[in-house]
Each structure stands twice: as structure tokens, then as C-alpha cells.
TrEMBL record:
Superkingdom to which the source organism belongs: Eukaryota
Protein name: Uncharacterized protein
Organism: Mythimna loreyi
Length: 482
DNA sequence: CAACAGGAAGTCA
DNA sequence: TGACTTCCTGTTG
């Protein structure tokens, strides 16, 4: 078991270490792309947010590097290198594109009009803290919940902020409450255009989870920007200018969409699957289902219920999802909808939205987070010299062991047949090759080339075919099998 | 037809 | 220079 996470780095017999983190953070040069939302996309997202009613386990904050949770599989913590890698990636701070490296990411709240209930100063800066925003001089009118807990999603439940309660801090829960009040008021007073109206929204749970994800702020490299949150509240309370409401909500939703899209992209990288579910193979579908179940701490479902390709999966109704995965069906269905929304054909329309980028936020032009850039980012040193993650300088045999070490994620692509003897089988050669190509930033990688590299290992004594040669079955030689 | 084997040349850090 | 990557021909099941 030692080698799964520690052997490779600890062994002095191996030619190269394997980084623990595989997903590269977005580099400064590639930046991140803000995803403005078109009205159609916003409408869709709002519908999703209102329709999707994930279980309690989805209401938990994603882990951050300051408070990393245990991997989703506590019974096999060492086997979740890739899941951990995803968390590492999510928590990776986006480097500042300019010289202000090391400065505190901040957001400025600049109300467009006088604000009666909340005491905003004309230019209020929010200093980023884990799970909390610090706003000097800000006093929320909404009491904290007795528990002081905050909603979060993922499998790791509560993350209490290390920051003590203080008037100068805005608890994220306060913001969420305010957000809910704003939304309720907006809906009651029909500030949203008919197109944006939601059919009986139960709760904007996913929006909550996106907004409270502090890594989301890091990724966006938030600097003082006029969010004009005050104006939203003002208009509903005073019956002011309706036109100011939708753009503000759009902006928030745009940021939520951005967060969702990045989560999707991260998952794509980790699983080595296409962002477009229509392109998924049967193995991709199973990998996605497994990952989603793990990520939201949902009960396992029989994988044979999802023996289908992506096109078939997309064609499933919510009822069919519920039949195949009783408790997890609705969540899987909602997640798939989000994937389709954020990565499907609408994505381009989404990116082309004319909603302006807030001042201080990186524009769409200097932000890029598509798969290619993530892969490219693996070869870049990011964050002013911070160690890179998911290096392209990894040996194939190490990479294969990484995959083998994550059976919950990659078990449908590659798995051990005889672990003690280092015998494994590639179940999905296309996917393994795709993962390898992604890691090495070689889009043209295929199994033919990958297997050629494996065969180079024969004379090096790293790998071999088993005595009774079987298709797609290989064996690590000693000590590489350890 | 896909997997397999291995030669040869090219790429890249 | 090592570790692939790319392309190739030919073989095997």
C-alpha cells in the first residue's frame, strides 16, 4: 500500500518522482475566463437551481487547501490521489496576472445608491478569509444562525471557519440569507423579466454552494469590483429602478456559472472525459457516475444500470435516473443537466454574452480554462515559482500506477488483476490513452502509441507481458510492482 | 479489427 | 541523453 502515495517519491530506485497533484492550476498567462451569462443561459441555470434539489450532502462547501477534508472514501484514503488532486486544483490560488502577487484578493462593494438597511460605505473592501468575507465597517442586519454553521457541499459536511465571530466579518451564511431575501423579494415584485422567472424555486442551493466556495474567489482573483449588491436590495425595498436588478443578479449568476463550469472542467481533467456528455463512452459514463456519487457522498448504485454511452445517458429522463439510482437519481440528473448547460453547445453562446466584465475582474480575453489550457498549464510554473502540480514530467509507468491507485475513479479504465504481482489490465484503452495524452499534453495520443511506450519498458525491465500473454494485460517488474 | 511486437527517426527537457 | 512520441511494417488471435 505504501507505494500508492508514498513509494514513488520515497524510493531512490525510481528515476523520477510523481507529483501528488495532477490537475494543474490555471496559469497566469492563460488566466481564467469569466463566463458571462446570456439571458437564456441564466434562465436555464435558474431553472436548474430551482429544480435541482440535491440532498443535504450537496450543501457542503468544497474543501479548500486550508481545511482539506478526508477523501470521499475513508476506507481507502490512499487510493484517492486523483480526487485529492481535484481538491488541490480547486483550492489552488490563481496567480495575479500583474505585479500584485501576494496581495489580498478583495472585492469592493460599491452601492449605486444610498442604502438604508445595510451600512455600506461607498467603497468597501472584502478581505478574503476561509469561508468568510471580512468587510470593515460592515454590520449585517441578519443574525447568525445558532449553530453558526454554513452550508457546504461535498462529502465532508461541516467546515467551521477558523475565523472567530466578529462584527467586521460577514458570515457567508449572512450573505446567503440576504441573497435569499433578495431573491424572494425580486420574485415577489416581478423584478425579473418573465423570461427569467423560475417555476417555484425551492432554493438556489447550487448557487449557494458556488457562492460560498472561497476557492471560487481565488480562482477569479477577485479584486475591488463594484458588485453593487446594495442596489439590488434598494430597488426591491424602495421600488426603484427595475433595470438595475437583473444585471446584478446576472453578474452573480455569471460568477456562479463560472464556478460551475470550472468544476466541470476540473472533473473532465481528472476523469479524462469530454466536457460534452454526448461524447462519453460507456466507461466515461460509469466514471462520471462514480465520481458524482463520491463527490456528493451519495449511496452507490449498481453500475450495470449505467452501462450506456453518453448519448443514451443524456436521453434518460429524471424518472429513469430515479429508477436506475433511486436515492441519487435526481442529483445525477441535475448534475448532468448542469454539465450540458455549462459545457454543451450553449456554452459558446454563454461566453459570447454581452454582459460586461466587472472592473477588476479578469476579462474573458485574459482568462482561459478550457481543457487545453489546463493541460498546458501542467507544464507551466504557476504562481511565481510555486511548485507545479500534475507535471508532464511523469513516467508512463508512474502514471499507470496513479490510475491504478484510484480504482474508484479509474477502475473502469484500468484495474489490478493481481496486485501483489503487479499484473493489471487496461479495460478501456481509449480512455487510458486519452488520460495519458492529457497528462502529457499530447492530444494525438492513442493506445497504439501508449502501448509502444509500454513495450519500450520490456527491455528496461520495468514492465512485461504476463507469462500467458493476454490482450491488454501487463505486468510490472520488480521493484516497480511494489 | 484491435492488440501486439519492434525498428527507426523525431521531439523535448 | 533519456524518455518518450510518431510512424511504420508485420504478426497474431
Amino acid at each position: 500500500m505504501l507505494w500508492e502515495t508514498g513509494f514513488i517519491e520515497e524510493s531512490d530506485t525510481m528515476p523520477q518522482t510523481v507529483p501528488r497533484s495532477g490537475c494543474s492550476p490555471p496559469s497566469a498567462s492563460q488566466g481564467e475566463r469569466a463566463v458571462p451569462a446570456s439571458p437564456a443561459d441564466l434562465q436555464h441555470l435558474l431553472r436548474l437551481l430551482g429544480a435541482a434539489s440535491p440532498p443535504e450532502s450537496m450543501l457542503h462547501s468544497p474543501p479548500n487547501p486550508h481545511n482539506k477534508p478526508p477523501p470521499p472514501y475513508p476506507e481507502d484514503n490512499t487510493n484517492n490521489v486523483f480526487l485529492e488532486r481535484l481538491y488541490d486544483f480547486e483550492g489552488y490560488p490563481t496567480p495575479s496576472p500583474s505585479s500584485d502577487e501576494g496581495s489580498i484578493p478583495a472585492v469592493a462593494l460599491q452601492p449605486a445608491s444610498p442604502y438604508s438597511s445595510l451600512q455600506y460605505s461607498p467603497q468597501v473592501y472584502i478581505k478574503e478569509e476561509p469561508n468568510r468575507l471580512a468587510v470593515p465597517g460592515f454590520a449585517s442586519p441578519y443574525p447568525l444562525s445558532p449553530s453558526g454553521s454554513c452550508v457546504s457541499y461535498g462529502s465532508h459536511n461541516q467546515y467551521s471557519s477558523p475565523v472567530p465571530q466578529h462584527d467586521e466579518y460577514i458570515d457567508i451564511e449572512e450573505l446567503l440569507k440576504e441573497n435569499q431575501i433578495l431573491q424572494d423579494s425580486v420574485q415577489q415584485q416581478s423584478y425579473l423579466t418573465p423570461k427569467l422567472e423560475v417555476e417555484e424555486p425551492r432554493d438556489h442551493i447550487l448557487l449557494r454552494s458556488a457562492l460560498e466556495d472561497t476557492s471560487f474567489q481565488k480562482r477569479l482573483n477577485l479584486r475591488p469590483i463594484p458588485l453593487e449588491l446594495g442596489s439590488v436590495k434598494m430597488e426591491e425595498s424602495s421600488g426603484g429602478d427595475d433595470s438595475l436588478v437583473a444585471p446584478d443578479i446576472d453578474r452573480v449568476l455569471s460568477m456562479a456559472i463560472e464556478q460551475t463550469k470550472r468544476d466541470v472542467d476540473n472533473t473532465c481533467t481528472v476523469l479524462g472525459i469530454s466536457p460534452d456528455p454526448m461524447l462519453w463512452s460507456t466507461g466515461d459514463v460509469k466514471a462520471w457516475v462514480m465520481f458524482t456519487l463520491q463527490h456528493y457522498n451519495l449511496p452507490m448504485v449498481p453500475m450495470e444500470n449505467f452501462t450506456m454511452d453518453g448519448a443514451a445517458l443524456v436521453a434518460l429522463t429524471e424518472e429513469e435516473f430515479n429508477q436506475r439510482a433511486s436515492q441519487a437519481g435526481s442529483t445525477l440528473y441535475a448534475q448532468l443537466e448542469i454539465w450540458r448547460t455549462s459545457q454543451g453547445p450553449d456554452h459558446h453562446q454563454l461566453s459570447a454574452s454581452p454582459i460586461p466584465t466587472p472592473a477588476g475582474l479578469p476579462s474573458a480575453d485574459d482568462m482561459s480554462d478550457d481543457e487545453d489550457s489546463e493541460s498546458a498549464g501542467t507544464s507551466a510554473t504557476v504562481g511565481g515559482g510555486k511548485a507545479k502540480t500534475g507535471s508532464t514530467h511523469i513516467h508512463l509507468w508512474q502514471f499507470l500506477k496513479e490510475l491504478l491507485a484510484s480504482p474508484h475513479v479509474h477502475g473502469s479504465a484500468i484495474r489490478w488483476l493481481d496486485r501483489s504481482n503487479g499484473v493489471f489490465k487496461i479495460e478501456d484503452s481509449v480512455r487510458v490513452a486519452r488520460l495519458w495524452g492529457k497528462r502529457k499534453n499530447r492530444p494525438a495520443m492513442n493506445y497504439d502509441k501508449l502501448s509502444r511506450s509500454i513495450r519500450q519498458y520490456y527491455k528496461k525491465g520495468i514492465m512485461k507481458k504476463t507469462e500467458r500473454s493476454q490482450r491488454l494485460v501487463y505486468q510490472f517488474c520488480h521493484p516497480y510492482c511494489l
